[in-house]
Write a structure and sequence with these properties.
Elements: E1 9-10, E2 16-17, H1 20-27, H2 36-42, E3 50-52, H3 66-77, H4 84-91, E4 92-93, E5 98-99, H5 101-109, E6 114-117, H6 122-130, E7 135-140, E8 149-158, E9 163-168, E10 171-177, H7 178-186, E11 192-196, H8 207-219, H9 223-236, H10 241-253, H11 257-270, H12 275-288, H13 291-304, H14 309-318
Antiparallel strand pairs: 1-2, 3-8, 4-5, 6-11, 7-8, 7-11, 8-9, 9-10
Helix pairs in contact: 3-4, 8-9, 8-10, 9-10, 10-11, 10-12, 11-12, 12-13, 12-14, 13-14
Length: 345
């Protein structure tokens, strides 16, 4: 009898019949087709045929402690001297006999790195490895109804042999067929992540995926690293407003009002219709005591989005903004050419 499934029913000739609900559960992981066969058929020309990141460190795992071992591996790649043993207290949950994904990501951020989640695709995984990025993957080496969770690090692949190479468990070079690996990865929801320096984008990063990871740093108080990640986004995608807003907010939170103002001015220069940019700029100018410009920026935000109550609140906040001390809003701010703060009509 399988725990939690109720009694199995016996059919003809003593055969055991599984309840319909259990059959559905067992087959649930097979509903979506594997990605590897199509990937191998198409043989993408932009990927090298073979890649192996042989310099990737190896930490044989202790019992149930594949999480600390996998995390130590990718942190070492980024020059952070840490062992699995020193990570146990951060990521290992004794009651679960394993590590939770949230702890893995938090431990990465605590070392001033971006914890960036990969898209759930085989081609994205291989592209990151081809770019020189070892990838932490989460696997279910058991069954859907009897999982055996495991973390490993993908360090290579061979398209001709249809294999994936991992640092896994006690195996420094675990070669697995691409299909078999994908089945174990799919049963764990295709979860994977990179430990990435904030100044270096993943090969498959998109604006929103990178900005989400930067925002996670900001929310956990890693403001300098978050600002650098946002700055990276503004260089890669200068037309995307969220990078500039994130950079402005992170610098503002650090007390760098000059930097925050520069970021938000850059945004409204790139995109004069960005009402969020104007609103945030109003708050920065208010904090600097640049009353006239703060009120103009707040009025612009309200004009561009008249139904947004937050912007009406901003106008009330800056209405009595004090005059700036002498020199604080000099030629580079209050007396800038009108085109720098021209609100579109």
């Amino acid at each position: 009898m399988i725990p939690g499934t109720g009694h199995l029913r016996q059919g003809r000739a003593g055969a055991w019949l599984l309840p319909a609900a259990l059959i559905s559960l067992l087959l649930a992981g097979c509903a979506a087709p594997l990605q590897a066969p199509a990937l191998l058929r198409e043989s993408p020309g932009d990927l090298p045929r073979q890649v192996e990141l042989t310099d990737t460190p190896f930490h044989p795992q202790d019992l149930y402690q594949c999480g600390p071992a996998a995390l130590a591996t990718v942190l070492n790649v980024q020059g952070i001297e840490v062992t699995p043993q020193t990570l146990v207290s951060e990521v290992y949950v004794p009651a679960r006999q394993g590590s939770l994904q949230t702890e893995m990501l938090a431990a990465t951020r605590s070392r001033e790195l971006v914890a960036w989640s990969l898209p759930p695709r085989m081609d994205a995984l291989l592209e990151e490895v081809a770019a020189g990025h070892p990838v932490v993957v989460f696997q279910n080496l058991g069954l859907n109804w009897a999982p055996y969770w495991h973390y490993a690090v993908v360090i290579g692949y061979d398209l001709d042999e249809a294999t994936v190479i991992l640092r896994s468990g006690t195996l420094e070079r675990h070669v697995n067929t691409m299909r078999r690996f994908e089945r174990t990865w799919r049963r764990a929801g295709y979860w994977a992540f990179l430990a990435q320096p904030p100044e270096r984008l993943p090969a498959t990063a998109t604006p929103l995926s990178w900005l989400r990871a930067a925002n996670d740093l900001e929310r956990t108080g890693r403001l300098e690293t978050a600002a650098e990640a946002y700055r990276t986004a503004t260089r890669a995608w200068p037309a995307h407003p969220v990078g500039w807003i994130g950079l402005g907010n992170a610098l503002y939170a650090q007390g760098d009002l000059d930097g925050a103002e520069q970021a938000l001015r850059a945004l409204v220069t790139h995109d004069p219709a960005s009402h969020a940019g104007w609103n945030n700029l109003a708050h920065v100018l208010h904090a600097r005591g640049c009353g006239k410009m703060a009120r103009e920026a707040a009025a612009c935000a309200s004009r561009l989005a008249p139904d947004e109550p937050l912007y009406r609140q901003t106008r009330r906040t800056v209405a009595q903004s004090p005059a700036a001390p002498a020199g604080d809003c000099g030629p580079t701010q209050e007396q800038q050419p009108a085109r720098d703060l021209r609100c579109p009509h």
